[in-house]
Design a protein that fits this description.
With 170 residues, this protein is mostly helical. Helices cover 75% and strands 0% of the residues. It binds hydroxy diiron-OXO moiety (OFO). The site of hydroxy diiron-OXO moiety has 7 residues, from helix 1, helix 2 and helix 3.
Length: 170
């Protein structure tokens, strides 16, 4: 049986991952209205990835015999200004999630739960990738500024992203 405090913190993390999904869907909606279909599609792939992150925690709690307690998902921001502002906000959000995963890891270490430490290592590595991919887009957008042609090129490029859930080890 998993430590009660740790199970509670993982339940809170499930809420954060589902909020992330919601936030990226909200960003997708803004891009869709702006006819930036590639960026909208990138956000959709990102939202699917967040759903996967949430369900991975969900399944882990079930596997460890703990209850999954779903809470209200906060309304995400709906007012955005530009692609650059959105991707900057995504980066800040991912930094917040990284901090939260690190705190979970600290707790798993504190309560001596080796199984959860091993499980969380996947998220620690994943967050490095999450931050790096958004940071790269922020840099590209900063470089092109308001240049319409550049935005269209990035949009086309980002549209090629798809989400394939990683194979789960047995
Ligand atoms: Fe789940 O990593 Fe982004 O938020």
């Amino acid at each position: 049986m998993i430590n009660e405090k740790l199970a509670k913190a993982i339940n809170e993390q499930i809420n954060k991952e589902l909020y992330s999904e919601y936030l990226y869907l909200s960003m997708q909606a803004w891009f869709a209205n702006e006819s930036l279909d590639g960026m909208a599609s990138w956000m959709n792939a990102q939202a699917q990835e967040e759903h996967f992150h949430a369900m991975k925690f969900f399944n882990y709690l079930v596997e460890r015999g703990a209850r999954v307690i779903l809470k209200t998902i906060e309304q995400p921001t709906v007012d955005f200004e530009s692609p650059l502002q959105i991707f900057k906000m995504s980066l800040e959000h991912e930094q917040f999630v990284t901090k939260s995963i690190n705190e979970l890891m600290d707790l798993a270490i504190k309560v001596n739960d080796h199984a959860t430490r091993s499980f969380l290592q996947w998220y620690v590595d994943e967050q490095v990738e999450e931050e790096a991919s958004v940071d790269k887009i922020v840099n590209m957008l900063q470089r092109i500024g308001d240049h319409g042609h550049g935005i269209m090129m990035i949009d086309r490029d980002l549209g090629s992203r798809t989400f394939t859930p990683p194979a789960e080890e047995e």
